[in-house]
Design brief:
Layout: E1 2-5, E2 8-11, H1 12-31, H2 43-48, H3 50-56, H4 64-67, E3 78-80, E4 86-88, H5 93-111, H6 121-149, H7 152-164, H8 170-173, H9 180-199, H10 203-219, H11 227-232, H12 238-250, H13 252-277, H14 297-302, H15 308-311, H16 315-324, H17 330-347, H18 367-382, H19 386-412, H20 422-428, H21 436-441, H22 447-450, E5 466-469, E6 473-475, E7 478-480, E8 487-489, E9 494-495, E10 505-508, E11 514-522, E12 527-535, E13 542-547, E14 555-558, E15 570-578, E16 586-593, E17 600-609
Antiparallel strand pairs: 1-2, 3-4, 5-17, 6-7, 7-8, 9-10, 10-17, 11-16, 12-15, 12-17, 13-14, 13-16
Helix pairs in contact: 1-6, 1-7, 5-6, 6-7, 6-9, 6-18, 7-18, 9-10, 10-13, 12-13, 16-18
């Protein structure tokens, strides 16, 4: 299906690729990330680092960073190696894909007199165009696959939904240097090549399969699971699987050649790791790991923090569409089902399962596969009764429009990249910009705990908080809490003249006015009570709670003393307060203070979270 222009037939699927490209360009030029040097950022700094290190600074070991004094700007975040060297954190696959565009940008930087260190505007600009070109290549192969099994119209609709109604649009138009659109294209090519290879199990196709699989893994090692699609393609039963295994065994020289082709792509990486670390295989993600015994499947798919199906609702119909493959396109059913199950398990076993970003970006790589059951679902819908067609059309349209709208919300901050909650989501629902109330609902994941396999929020660290300073223990120049977990400044005011408990208190005056100083983080809506015992020798001294950086932001004090015993020897000062709704993650400072020349004694400071 399509239309004629002159004597040439133009297909709807190719028209959809042109439309998608136009939208991407419009969105990119709407923001112009390259002008702010905001494309080669975050993870992309490591993906990209091989290129300036090799072509500009001529030192992949990164030793030049110790002595370089030139005028070329560079941004490289190295990882230390066991041998004392430096390694680029990620593998070099992305740098290989960037390279043609990097070299063009480098030439233009010279011609146009930009800084030629690898990070000025031309380099960012070139990466955007590279991402768009890779997207077009991926869509070209994807439409070739879909056109074999579905109508031109279905293919065209599917391509539009996959790009413009998901987070893929963001990672082409704005976050162009991230790996996802590149992996999407490599997956498209791999699916196409897999079908061709199983139709003709020849040396050429198998060598290309090995090379492409190697590049896929070099870009993102966890994407090696795409090999499952190759293994299970067109498998319908255990009998088919047995025949497939026998096919591999009979053609073992070809399979060996496939494996050798895979290794060939990895040789430069292995040599690089050996050079900088002394190891052929060097795990550069120090302190990061998978927790295969604790995958966050439900959270990764449905959580408000960054659940894939929450922020890419059109993909719900892709998941449903897998069931329609059983009768419609059986050759895809097993390979896609097996891949999606294993891939989901692997992705959501990573310590940072929410993959800081928009719409659970880690799933974008597999959208070429997801397009097939989505097209199958749309095809199935066309064969239903009119009432079902209308209902499904409305649901798909609503999901697509919502996905499109999420793009704008993320850009304005109405969807946060890692701190979303149920309350924040519904406060922002269908609002283009964030409200003041929205910010109060955000909660920050506890990255330190997540890295240990414990899923929590940072503010949960304050739950059951009860900290005491009784002045009895010291550690160096610090007062130490009885539990040994907290340090208070400092020991210079420690005195044995009087004590409420134990042998020591603090004695402060104008010469040394502050004592038992302690800082900690609090979060909006939390409530605390701070108390301290004061010796009744005078009316001097204060208990103070304030923002550690700027007391004008938050400040409370008291000099009122309440006595509970008849002798009125030791009284108690206390401050009860609630953190204002707009003050998320405030660093408080607690202390006792006496500006008078006459000394005051304090003991047993207590900090408790009460709500």
């Amino acid at each position: 299906m399509g239309f004629l222009k002159g004597n040439k037939f133009i297909s709807w699927s190719k028209i959809s690729i042109l439309l998608i490209s136009a939208v991407v360009i419009q969105k990119a030029f709407e923001v112009k990330q390259w002008e702010y040097k905001a494309i080669i950022v975050n993870d992309a700094i490591s993906y990209y680092a091989y290129l300036p290190a090799l072509f500009i600074y001529h030192d992949l070991t990164l030793k030049f960073m110790d002595t370089y004094k030139g005028d070329k700007e560079y941004i490289i975040w190295p990882t230390p190696t066991p041998s004392g060297g430096r390694s680029i954190k990620t593998a070099m696959g992305m740098s290989i894909l960037y390279m043609p565009f990097f070299l063009i940008a480098h030439a233009f930087a010279y011609i146009l007199h930009y800084n030629t260190g690898g990070y000025s505007v031309p380099y960012h600009y070139a990466i955007f165009w590279g991402a768009l070109i890779y997207l077009i290549i991926g869509l070209y192969f994807l439409q070739k696959i879909l056109n074999r099994y579905f109508s031109q119209l279905i293919t065209s609709i599917t391509l539009i939904l996959i790009v413009l109604c998901t987070n893929l649009l963001r990672y082409v138009a704005l976050d162009s240097a991230m790996s996802h659109v590149y992996s999407f294209t490599l997956f498209s090519c791999f699916i196409y090549l897999t079908i061709k290879t199983h139709e003709r199990f020849g040396y050429r196709n198998l060598i290309l399969t090995g090379l492409l699989l190697g590049l896929i893994a070099l870009v993102r090692p966890s994407n090696i699971v795409i090999v499952l699609f190759f293994i299970f393609w067109n498998i319908h039963s255990f009998g088919d699987l047995k025949n497939r295994i026998m096919l591999f065994i009979r053609n073992y020289p070809k399979i060996i050649l496939l494996v050798l082709s895979f290794i060939l792509i990895w040789i430069p990486q292995l040599v690089y790791w050996k050079t900088v670390s002394g190891q052929w295989f060097f795990f550069s993600y120090t302190g990061e790991r998978f927790y295969f015994n604790n995958p966050q499947i439900l959270a990764g798919l449905f959580s408000y923090r960054n659940g894939w199906l929450i922020y890419c609702p059109i993909m719900v119909f892709s998941i449903i569409g897998i069931t329609t493959l059983i009768k419609g396109r059986k050759e895809f059913f097993i390979p896609i089902l097996v891949f999606l199950i294993v891939n989901t398990y692997v992705l959501l076993s990573w310590w940072c399962w929410w993959y800081t970003g928009y719409g659970h970006r880690a799933f974008i790589d597999s959208y070429a596969l997801c397009a097939i059951p989505l097209a199958s679902f749309i095809t199935w819908t066309t064969k239903r009764e009119l009432s079902y067609k209308i209902i499904i059309f409305l649901l798909v349209s609503a999901s697509g429009l919502l996905g499109w709208f999420y793009y704008y919300q993320y850009q304005t901050g109405a969807i946060h990249y890692c701190m979303m909650t149920k309350d924040a989501y519904w406060e922002s629902f269908f609002k283009k910009s964030p409200t003041m109330k929205y910010w109060s609902f955000l909660r920050e994941p506890d990255y330190e705990n997540a890295d240990r396999g414990i899923q929590s929020y940072i503010d949960e660290r304050n739950n059951n908080l009860h900290i005491i300073c009784d002045n009895e223990k010291v550690s160096g120049n610090y007062l130490l809490s009885p539990s040994g977990n907290y340090l208070f400044q400092d020991t210079s005011s420690r005195s044995s003249d009087y004590a409420f408990s134990g042998k020591y208190s603090v004695k402060i005056s104008s010469k040394n006015p502050y004592a038992m100083t302690f800082s900690f983080e609090v979060y909006n809506n939390e409530e605390y009570i701070i108390s301290v015992r004061k010796f009744n020798n005078n009316f001097k001294g204060f208990l103070i709670v304030s923002d550690s950086e700027n007391p004008k932001v938050f400040y409370q004090e008291t000099n009122e003393v309440t006595f509970s015993d008849m002798n009125k020897i030791w009284g108690i000062m206390s401050i009860k307060f609630k953190i204002p709704i707009q003050m998320h993650r405030l660093k408080l400072k607690i202390c006792v203070y006496n500006p008078s020349d006459e000394p005051a004694y304090f003991d047993d400071l207590e900090i408790s979270k009460i709500n």
